[in-house]
Structures
1.
Amino acid sequence: MTIQPVKPATRTEPHPLLKLALELGPLLVFFFANSRGEWLAATFPLLADLGDPIFIATGLFMIATAVSLIASWLMLRTVPMMPLISGVVVFVFGALTLYLQNETFIKMKPTIVNTMFGTILLGGLFFGKSLLGYVFDAAFRLDAEGWRKLTLRWGVFFFFLAVLNEVVWRSFSTDFWVAFKVWGTMPITIAFTMAQMPLIMRHSLEAKEKAARKALEKPTEG
């Protein structure tokens, strides 16, 4: 089956540090609010009505996520698909967490999001479509084989993250789960991303086009 890469239209790529700040910011707010929940409740009595620190963290996480999405639109004039879908799940499961006073819902959020993306990517491959460029709003261009391999790897990795989240939140305390969500899952994801660079370089269309131009410019030896 031929894999057809699906990518968004080419546009100016925002600075990587800006993207990182927009995506990591809400997680840091979540971690800080959970670790300093009692202080926040004492300092801002309105937050005390939300309940325990995890519920205060959930409420602030929802607000920070909304701010991040709005800032992305105002500064970049776009909201990438992955943060958008993740944000929708945050709002739904965060609201259930606060309304029912049950932290299980916010703990399941990463499982739901990662399973969703894994299903989208592997399901797309099953139907001959590589949707990775659309999901990640990727700026790079790869050949069809590169998209297929990269999509397969990320699809499996998303399912790995879903299983990992289930193991952590069901086996450890809430505080440990929150800390692992920020200081465990993020480094694992960055390490996995960096490990894909050799594959990206091998299948990069830009690299192949550059090599072809150099070959054409090389003077013919007599």
Note: The CA atoms of residues 111 and 164 lie 8 Å apart.
2.
Amino acid sequence: MQPIRKAETVSDTAAQAQPIAGVRIREIKTADLAAVAALLTRGFAFRSEAYWLRGLERHAARPRPVGFPAFGYCLDHGGVPVGVILLLFSNVQSEDGAVIVRANVSSWYVEPAFRAFSSMLVRAATRDKTVTYFNITPAPHTWSQVEAQGFSVYCKGQIYAAPALSRPVAGVVIDEFADGAGNGLSAYEIDLLRQHADWGCLSVVAREAGVVRPFVFQKHHVKNVLPIYRLLYCRDTADLARLAGNLGRFLLGRGGLLVRLDANAAMPELVGWYSEKRGRKYAKGPHPPRLGDLAFTEAALFDR
């Protein structure tokens, strides 16, 4: 199916709805990135401009679906962005092998004087019914607003596990992914592992009796102290649960005792705890992400 040309659709909507205010909705262009980074820094004071620019530059350099905005949309007032919604579009492979388009609704901020246009910006930017839009970092105070925009919960919380405490499976070999070592993986998975490794993530392959399973983890520190690995990609979270002992020992050798992963309930195979205080995620569209697939999202592009 051919994608909707959003620049035309959104501009037409904005022109009809906002003829007097002098505010229009348009695509974010490369020339806007410095202004967008400054705007997001005002909205998210705990992030630096360098943080935003690094992620935007990484996204700009990677292959993206044709016919969709490179970075998302902004509210433009007199040529200056006064509001922004970052959309990270990707071609991803579904479980049946089909290529689908999805967009990570990464960050959304509007200057106080223009907040009346916030809902219009979100509706216009997420109107294509052929695309799956998903939000992986909604603040709790925005949950009701996100649901009113047509999004539904696909992930309720997270598991925090110590996989090294699980019994390893005999005959399993865990290695860090390297170019030329992708036998048993699809071309899509090889590219996924390579790109995430380039962004500083830990791309891993588990080999067992001729079967190869891919994993991507991202190391960070809680309160800048406690090291923890976040699961960004696997084929099935059941694979991580089954191979927890093997993966846990591998990660422990790289400075991480704990792993956190998206979940909708506790997993008895994992030593740890399940919480719904953090980790809720929303999606709308034909192909909601499965648990264990945060590939090509802000989590990988911005958080390293």
Note: Residues 158-279 form a domain with the Aminopeptidase fold (CATH 3.40.630).
3.
Amino acid sequence: MKRIDIKGRIVADDHLEVYEWFGYAATSPSVVKSAIAEAEMTGEKELLIEINSGGGSVFAAAEIYYALKKFDGVVNVEIPSLAASAASFIAMAGHKVSMSILAQFMIHGASTFASGNHQDMTDTSDFLRSIDDSIINAYLTKTSKSREELRTMMDKDTWMTPQQALEYGFIDEILFENSQPNVVASVGNSDETEMLPQEVIDKVKAEILAKKNSSIPDPVNVTKPQMQNEEDNTMDLKTLQNNHPELFNQVKQMGHDEGVKAENDRIKAIEEIAPVGNDALVQAAKFDKPVTAEQLAVQIVKNQKEAGAAFYTNAQQDAEQLQDISGEQAPENQATSEQKFSAGLMNVWGGNKQ
């Protein structure tokens, strides 16, 4: 039986190295796919998927679910401690889903960040409802609850004990149910399920790429020079989080605040330069295909230049057709096409002068 661990945040493949650089546990679709491919090459017909995750990217989780469902064999899922959010519907790919007596199972609706006018908010709401409907499809393959019941449970963030998850049909078995463990309850760290802001991911990816292209060693593996009788005191993000939680939270909040400010500044700059008559281009620059205000300005100038060239060409062709008229039908004014075009521009922009 091939064992595959799905731990930490569920992230896209191109974000994985950023989380690893920070020292966060994370799983991406390519990690799971590679493990499945190894199992298939060795002729394995059974997988053991151990899930300990607070969730993450819906689309990355959906890709993992798909890969597990395509496996030509038996998929067993075990939940030692937590399967929440996106990780909960990955668990639904198992033919048999087992849950430790100490574990928790949680389902809720998808969430995202959005900005814009009331129509943008409505579109985002419709998008999230569509995502929720897709997630419910996975739950319906295991539980006997109706779509309406599942939507109600997701709307209010439903946490389940192993007994409740078994009763509702999300799992098939409770592990160690007959044992008598000594249980200590503790409030979980909210960092376990929080995703890094996109601005932070982009910045760190740029740093990683720069270091790969230079001889500078990776800062995660750099240790300060040891003095005599001084212990190795390597500092990475995980150590910072564990030993200096207040400083860690300050750094994380700074990253979040910088990301939000950068996005707000970008939108504001676009709105300040946006000319009348370019609504579709401005909308795309804000949300559909995000660009900076400078890039938008270049696109607007380019479009206006192309429109001006087309206007000049059409006007010149019209003038040349009039010039070709002969005989009694010819106009009295035999001006050149260029003169006619200039006169036309005078009529358009300044009116006829007497």
Note: Confidence is low (pLDDT under 50) at residues 180-193, 222-232, 345-354.
